[in-house]
Amino acid sequence: MAEMIDYGRFAERLRRQQGRSRWELLDAVQREWGYEDPGGEPVASRWGGENSAYGIDESLPVPAALAEWWDSPANSFSFRPRLYWTHTQWPPSIWVDEYGERDVDEDDYDDSRDEDAEDEARLDPSRADGLPKDNPFLPPDAPDRRICIFMSEYQYCNQWGYLAAEASHPDPRVLVSTGSGWQLQSRSLSEFFLQLALERLPGTYGWTLKVRRPDVAGSPAVLERLTASYRELGLLPWQELGCDALMYGGPDALISHGRGPGADFPLVIHGRTREALLKVVETLGIDCADKDIKPPSEVPEPLEELGPLALTDGDTDDRGRWRVDSTGSAPAAVTVPAALRALPDRTATALDEDATLAAAGDAEGRVHVWECTVEAAADEPSAAVSRQLHRAPVTALACVRPDDAHRAVVSGDAHGVVRYWRTDRDPRPLPFDRRRTAVTALTAAVLATGPALACAWADGLVRVWDLASGSVARLRLGTGITDLALQSDGTLCVTGPSGPVTLRLDTERLWPHRELELRLKDVDWGSYWSARGPAHAVPDLIGKVASDHKKTAMDAVHDLYRLLVSKSSGLTAAAPAVPFLAELMTDPDNQARPTLLLLIADIADCESAENRAAVRAVLPALRHLHDDPLPSIRWAAAELEKHCAPRPGEA
């Protein structure tokens, strides 16, 4: 974690925000808690939320702040909506329901009703119950008393909106629906989105302790210590799910004090670090055990801690994936077309092997692609096709042929995002890869195994992909890499602080599970059923189990548990997955072996005869694990034997 942030001084930051960019503080707070721009395109758009056939007043303007929020790269909702568990509404709908309830669905209406009369009544401002004429938000003679709804809690227990009378304001106040009618939630839309992020993101990225009502009621001094030791953030009370909560701040910590009958947890403490959370616990005098503290559910992949690239003749990888063939020589430089050299703000360029596809990136994150003829490659290619693929300067490019008929451009940026763009279609909306440090070099070539891609990041990690299978190798080569050049003969030239070094790659050891991943692609996983529907996610997760990054492998096994292990007989995806899981279990370098073996054992411990038969079929290949050096493996092997034993009534 970076420098300590004292949220006890947040109210001062909120005051300083006045007159600045609306999203500057939101962007800072999100990054402080660990949210990172994932790169790529938003997965949620303003038009992708709820939209009713009723209650839309097209004559009302949309406040500038709401439109800005949707377009801002600081809008983490559009990139990660599941962090929020809310529904959005575009265009904002009009709240006019007489009884203060959400509009019913169109299918619930009686076809015999007078539709014109009902629609007219629904848009009658005088029927906006929950916003009485003596409300504090509008003068008594205000002609328009409607509310424009732009967001709802996931189960519609609360809705958020602004006054239709303030729709023309650039950043109007936000109201929230409660059991007592509409209440003021935030002084502006921009403040609301800041407060929503503070309510949602720390539970994912921080350490969390929820203190139950009896523990607070039995110790009234806890609340006295809260108000004496910590300061309010300067935001209005957050009102949701029958709870009215004030948020306090301290060093690397936020404390939410939920008041009212809806607060099952009157105190919710979030810490950017475990130490910060424990300091709050100590200050407030709360008793808690380790099991009560929830760690972050998302932890960024740590950066490598490597020294500068320093390889000499004969050096080899500890797995035999590469060896140094030579030092001091580099491939001949590629002639860059004049159009690329003349591009303003050019930051990176690339040509494919045949010099028929040229690409350039610029400081604004745009990628420009030219189709070339062989004759014109070194002169003037065709007009460029340009795309805004990055939100940071492009730092590296590569051109690749994924197959005989197509060509693609791969680009990397200063934020560590890698994008993939096949030139005959739109770029992939999601990043090809991403790490938390700048991309320093990219290269691609067609090897004997097919098209391959390599990427270096500033912390010294190099990843090499087999594009046909998706297999990837992580090579911890060292920092200072400025250029990569992959050749069709299987050599990789790496240029670092001491000059170029040529590595001879062993593709079988580089991608030991390449054939397995190709076989995964041959299975029609969509025809099988998992605990969350069709099993489309299963092959990708099995591929991640093969990762040499331990957390990636472990997370994939845990996700497979949720998809494949069930007492229900309706799930069919586990049986075809078992042979692949068993094959990975026989790899002594697998990073998740104990948990993976338990997954296989638990697939057998179910009511599905097909699952048990699949596990029994691979049992002979796994019996040697009874003698494994690790006690956890030996114990899991015993569980596997137990679950595979014949059951009463089985032949």
Helix/strand structural class: alpha+beta
Strand content of the residues, in percent?
A: 25-35%
Tally the helices: what do you get? 19
Q: What is the strand tally?
A: 30
Q: Which percent range fits the helix content?
A: 25-40%
- Compute the average pLDDT: 88
What can be said about the biggest beta sheet?
A: 7 strands, antiparallel
The termini sit apart by: 58 Å
Over the alpha carbons, how many angstroms does the gyration radius reach?
29 Å
Give unreliable regions as ranges: 97-129
Anisotropy-based shape: globular
Set out the fold topology:
Layout: H1 10-17, H2 24-32, H3 64-71, H4 76-79, E1 86-95, H5 115-122, E2 147-153, E3 159-163, E4 174-178, E5 181-186, H6 189-200, H7 202-205, E6 207-211, H8 213-217, H9 221-229, E7 231-232, E8 238-240, E9 243-250, E10 253-259, E11 267-271, H10 274-284, E12 293-294, E13 322-327, H11 338-341, E14 346-351, E15 357-362, E16 366-371, E17 385-388, E18 394-403, E19 406-413, E20 417-422, E21 433-434, E22 439-447, E23 450-457, E24 461-466, E25 472-476, E26 483-486, E27 491-496, E28 499-505, H12 507-510, H13 514-521, E29 529-530, E30 533-534, H14 538-545, H15 550-564, H16 574-585, H17 593-604, H18 609-622, H19 631-644
